[in-house]
Amino acid sequence: MVKTTVPREEYMMQGHVACQGCGATIAMRYVLKALGQKTLVSIPACCWAVIPGIWPQATLKTPLLYTAFEVTGAALSGMEAALKAKGLEDEITVLGFAGDGGTADIGIQALSGMVERETNAIYVMYDNEAYMNTGIQRSGSTPYGAWTTTTPVGKKHEWKMEFKKSVAEIMVAHRIPYVATATIAYPEDLIAKVKKAKSIKGSKFLQIFSSCPTGWKHPPEISVEISRKAVASRMFPLYEVENGRYRITQKPKKIPVEEYLKLQGRFRYLPEEEIQRIQEHADREWEILLKKEEFSREL
Known about the structure:
With 299 residues, this protein is of the alpha/beta class. The protein contains 10 helices and 8 strands. It has an 8-stranded mixed β-sheet, with helices on both faces.
């Protein structure tokens, strides 16, 4: 990834109502720093539907369109059409900012339709790995082994039994021009990817790892540390796929997944054999990603 600096301009003001240490709030701040004020933002039902505050208060310096849980992709197509009708499609960026529940599950049909129509917009899935706004229910993006209110841990140890859905790879399969993963722990990497997405015409998708102290049961002051260890443990690799070509953008020194898991109360119930299973899964997925990057060099 080309070295970039974090812009000084701020498009998110003081006074939001997010939880302390909210990764999704930091993610929005960085995304808007990269895009600038000439951005139209569509937000569905999610944490970010309440974070800006109650009218007439406002947190963002950009226009917001609030929509139903499942329709972010369709809303972006409509916003792009409106800008085209006014001759403003080259001046204003269309941005969708939705959680993993409203993207990986409820909204995936609208997202698929949006990218199939080649809507010129950026769709950001801020990934806090559960339906946090409605009570910490498991989503398709919740990792294996995690406690949630719908995968409660009791005598039968019924934590989340399925591995995390790879929404980024689903978008790669749609053959859109740009897909990337990012995290708040690497702001330069995140901002560079958002700027690149803005420069590319067509549908772009970014999955931003956004730690959640409330749902993950960790102190708010270690949100960035957790995000950094998610990358180092290879639980959340950082890479981009431009026109089908893979490139890993961060390769920090590897740490065991246990160092990442032990910081979060949602994993405290896991026995050693389950931690080892997660380690093997992370290692396997990393090797697959390395092979994709290697193959991309040969294209």
